[in-house]
């Protein structure tokens, strides 16, 4: 019964996982449009059951994340809760997919606007949030009535498969939530198949800007709907009027979550001259006191390993480049004594815009500080990037807060706050940081089509 309700509402055939390189062929070139309204209490109930099962199994799910990615267990537990909340949120949004009635000048006509599911959605997710990046997309897609095919990151497939097991236990019909794990060797081929197969109506991707551009190219031939949450280069601005203690606390939270491996991590710290020295000193002290590198399963660890050696090499490259061009290592600066993929939380001062860490996303535990003089200068530096996902700034001046918040060219702004992600709020960027929004009441629209119906002869 649940299968029929789901497929009747989305008009999409159930899917089976296919081996890499083999296309999933529909009987027609594109799934038929929905037969009825998108809102569905049955889907709402199933998503809620899935949420309940995630909460019941939260400890095991967190252990999987830590084992796969090295993320400290406490952070992994936080991710599981954050991940589950998307299912709860979209279970409620599934009941609130409303259309419109538009009154026209013609007395014998009525205009209706219907919202209908897009069809099959291909979801490609990253390794840094192997659970939350799935539920943020899949929760919205399933709530809208779409079926999904998830290609998880090659480094973290087990989180996606664990979610699939819980989806099955929740009663979500077979063929609705599909997972295609793959190796690094064939990941590119699988991504191309998902983007070009005529069965797929929607691509949702989180990852690097470079990979996003490749996927956009593949999706262009069939003009698929796309959502892209791509790279960032988040500025963290501290003005002279800021509360230094608050700014440092925000900097720690924003920069070193998941060892600096998030797309909204602060990448450039712009600190005004009058407060610069006090901020750098306090920041270094708090880093030494609060950041503890170690095994993610060990109590007290706040900084786990980076995802692989290539990631460590990039951090090393950025530190070496900055130092060679005049930057000063305040603390850290090298691989941690634990070896392998561990790197010391690092703070650099005397950083300039010519250094790699100022215009490339590091994706690691490196905090470079750039000194500036005026508000206009800070905004110019912040907006010089060709990406614009998140930005942060600290100020106690109300007029300045309004000016800067409006002028920063990013999709999300944290004002006197270093942690901004929430299921209730829209997540996404501008410029080359992406297309569309995830989470919030807006997230479900990414998986819906608007259909205008002109009803005449009344």
Automatic annotation (TrEMBL):
Supply the enzyme class, top level: oxidoreductase
- Identify this protein by name: Succinate-semialdehyde dehydrogenase
- Note the NCBIfam families from the entry: SSADH
**What is a biological process (GO) this protein takes part in?**
gamma-aminobutyric acid catabolic process
User: Where is the protein found, in the record's own terms?
Assistant: Mitochondrion
The catalytic activity of this protein is classed by the Enzyme Commission as 1.2.1.24
Which reaction does this chain catalyze? succinate semialdehyde + NAD(+) + H2O = succinate + NADH + 2 H(+)
Which InterPro entries does its entry note?
Answer: Ald_DH/histidinol_DH, Ald_DH_C, Ald_DH_CS_CYS, Ald_DH_CS_GLU, Ald_DH_N, Aldehyde_DH_dom, Aldehyde_DH_Superfamily, Succ_semiAld_DH
Ranges for region Disordered: 17-40
Against SUPFAM superfamilies, the record matches this protein to: ALDH-like
Keywords from UniProt, A to Z, are: Acetylation, Disulfide bond, Mitochondrion, NAD, Oxidoreductase, Phosphoprotein, Transit peptide
Keyword presence, NAD: yes
Membership in a protein family: Belongs to the aldehyde dehydrogenase family.
Name its pathway. Answer: Amino-acid degradation; 4-aminobutanoate degradation
Q: What's the subunit arrangement here?
A: Homotetramer.
| GO CC aspect terms | mitochondrion
Broad class of the protein's primary localization: mitochondrion
């Amino acid at each position: 019964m649940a299968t029929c309700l789901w497929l009747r509402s989305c008009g999409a055939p159930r899917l089976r996982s296919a081996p890499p390189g083999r296309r999933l062929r529909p009987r027609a070139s594109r799934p038929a449009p929905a037969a009825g309204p998108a809102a569905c209490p049955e889907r709402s109930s199933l998503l809620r059951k899935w949420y309940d099962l995630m909460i019941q199994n939260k400890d095991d799910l967190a252990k999987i994340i830590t084992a796969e990615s090295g993320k400290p267990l406490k952070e992994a537990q936080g991710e599981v809760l954050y991940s589950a909340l998307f299912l709860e949120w979209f279970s409620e949004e599934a009941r609130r997919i409303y259309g419109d009635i538009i009154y026209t000048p013609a007395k014998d006509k009525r205009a209706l606007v219907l919202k209908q599911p897009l069809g099959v959605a291909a979801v490609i997710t990253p390794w840094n949030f192997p659970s939350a990046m799935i539920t943020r997309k899949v929760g919205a897609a399933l709530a809208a009535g779409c079926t999904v095919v998830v290609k998880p990151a090659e480094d973290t497939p087990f989180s996606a498969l664990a979610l699939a097991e819980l989806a099955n236990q929740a009663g979500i019909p077979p063929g609705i939530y599909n997972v295609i794990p793959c190796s690094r060797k064939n990941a590119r081929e699988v991504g191309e198949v998902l983007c070009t197969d005529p069965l797929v109506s929607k691509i949702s991707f989180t990852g690097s800007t470079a990979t996003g551009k490749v996927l956009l190219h593949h999706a262009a031939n069939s003009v698929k709907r796309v959502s892209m949450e791509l790279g960032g280069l988040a500025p963290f601005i501290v003005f002279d009027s800021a509360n230094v203690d608050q700014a440092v606390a925000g900097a720690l939270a924003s920069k070193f979550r998941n060892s600096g491996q998030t797309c909204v991590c602060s990448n450039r710290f712009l600190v005004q001259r009058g407060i610069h020295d006090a901020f750098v000193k306090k920041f270094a002290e708090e880093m030494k006191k609060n950041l503890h590198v170690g095994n993610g399963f060990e109590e007290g660890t706040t900084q786990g390993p980076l995802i692989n050696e290539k990631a460590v090499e990039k951090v090393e490259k950025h530190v070496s480049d900055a130092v060679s061009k005049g930057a000063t290592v305040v603390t850290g600066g090298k691989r941690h004594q634990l070896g392998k993929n561990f790197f010391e939380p690092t703070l650099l001062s005397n950083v300039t815009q010519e250094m790699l860490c100022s215009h490339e996303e590091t994706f690691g535990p490196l905090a470079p500080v750039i000194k500036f003089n005026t508000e206009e200068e800070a905004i110019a530096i912040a907006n010089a990037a060709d990406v614009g996902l998140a930005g942060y700034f600290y100020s106690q001046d109300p007029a300045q807060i309004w000016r800067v918040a409006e002028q920063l060219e990013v999709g999300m702004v944290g004002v006197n706050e270093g942690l901004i992600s929430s299921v209730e709020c829209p997540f996404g960027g501008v410029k080359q940081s992406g297309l569309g929004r995830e989470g919030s009441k807006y997230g479900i629209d990414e998986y819906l089509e608007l259909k205008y119906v002109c009803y005449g002869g009344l």
